[in-house]
Design a protein that fits this description.
393 residues, six-stranded parallel β-sheet, 24% strand, alpha/beta
């Protein structure tokens, strides 16, 4: 080796030592939990993530009601509004068994005699619904016409015709039509990722990759689940989550679907059913890829290994939302890789702001939970991708 020439092996070892020493110094200010390493020796900085603490409100900021409880998401929706200071006054479902189950969970609320009793009560400011998907937008339109705000489970809309009518009535009434895209709004790792991305932690976002696998268990599903007219199709239903995240993390306000496909690979006994779908999308601030399916195997410890990767010019973030394979970490996992290091964040202690934000928006006529344009555009992309999807199986 020539004099003064640096040995590449020494450079590599020195770089590793510098990074490790820097991380150990960081431990002195309490951010460091441990320093596990990859097989190649690259250290990972571990930390407990925190975020903005949400104010805990006493009930009574607004009164709200629930109409339609066909999907279990309604419980998370109701709890979010309660945490934001909402007081549940009524609930109503056409199905007696759903009313019974709901009454046990929320004994403080009254079972309404009809939908009309709720819509005609001036005290009720917000109506929540997780009814059969095709019924959600028509209900929301009736709610807005009654002078109340509306919060639906995803998909809040199942056809482009419903979307056009919802947009029209929302503009005429000035009421809120919100959809709780829970893979973002109800997941602590995703809330933390939003904070990091918007603070510039990975530079300018150029792409998102959203994966939404789900477990089927057909014996537990109602008949309407297998009817694509009732649910809108797999992309409309599940992938509305991924389109919401694509718009949010790329900060896109305009977008187009480039390609999409759906298939029924393994459930031919249900004619017309879709168990797989994916799509490519391009926005005015970034691009995205979406994949959803009903193929989570029973060997997994949860209903789906939902993941999101946000790729930036200065690094990337990967979220392992509900499980972390071959570890004991559970859910709410965030990995951030930048030009200097790899960081793992456990996000169990991050607060979820959506419930407080939606109550604030009802009271103040603001758009802090999400803009109305964003809410509708996420559904529009899912609906267009579904409508134009190539059938591949």
């Amino acid at each position: 080796m020539k004099k003064n020439q640096i040995n590449p092996s020494d450079m590599k070892n020195n770089r590793r030592s510098f990074i490790k020493d820097s991380i150990l110094q960081t431990a002195g200010i309490g951010l460091m939990g441990s320093v596990p390493t990859f097989a190649a020796g690259q250290p990972i900085r571990e930390m407990k993530a925190t975020g903005k603490k949400q104010t805990r409100f006493a009930k009574g900021r607004i009164k709200f009601a629930v109409i339609g409880m066909n999907h279990g998401h309604i419980y998370g929706m109701a709890n979010a509004v309660k945490e934001g200071g909402g007081e549940m006054k009524y609930f109503f479902a056409k199905e007696a068994e759903l009313n019974q189950a709901f009454a046990k969970r929320y004994p403080e609320a009254k079972q309404a005699r009809s939908e009309e009793e709720i819509l005609n009560d001036p005290e009720v400011k917000l109506v929540l619904s997780a009814g059969i998907p095709k019924d959600r937008a028509p209900l929301g339109i009736r709610v807005m016409k009654a002078g109340k705000d509306y919060m639906a489970d995803k998909p809040g809309i199942t056809t482009l015709e419903q979307l056009a009518e919802a947009r029209k009535v929302q503009k005429e009434t000035g009421r809120i039509f919100s959809i709780m895209y829970s893979e973002r709004l109800g997941n602590k790792a995703t809330v933390k990722a939003s904070e990091l991305v918007y603070s510039g932690a990975i530079g300018r976002v150029i792409q998102t990759v959203g994966l939404g696998p789900h477990r089927m268990r057909p014996e537990s599903r109602p008949d309407w689940f297998f009817d694509m007219e009732q649910v809108g199709g797999i992309i409309t239903d599940i992938a509305s989550h991924q389109f919401d995240q694509f718009l949010h993390f790329t900060n896109s306000t305009e977008a187009q679907v480039l390609a999409s496909q759906v298939g029924n690979f393994n459930h031919k006994e249900h004619a017309g059913f879709e168990d797989f779908g994916d799509a490519m999308v391009r926005g005015n601030k970034g691009s995205g890829y979406v994949r959803v399916d009903w193929f989570t195997p029973d060997g997994l410890d949860t209903w789906g290994d939902g993941r999101l990767t946000v790729i930036g010019t200065e690094g990337f973030i990967e979220l392992r939302k509900y499980t972390n394979l071959a570890t004991d970490k559970g859910g709410n996992n965030l990995y951030l890789v930048n030009q200097k290091e790899t960081i793992y964040m456990n996000c169990d202690d991050v607060d979820l702001p959506y419930g407080t934000q939606i109550v604030d928006d009802v009271l103040n006529r603001t758009e802090t939970a999400m803009t109305q344009d964003h809410c509708f555009l996420a559904m529009e992309l899912a609906l267009i991708a579904e409508k134009n999807a190539v059938q591949i199986a």
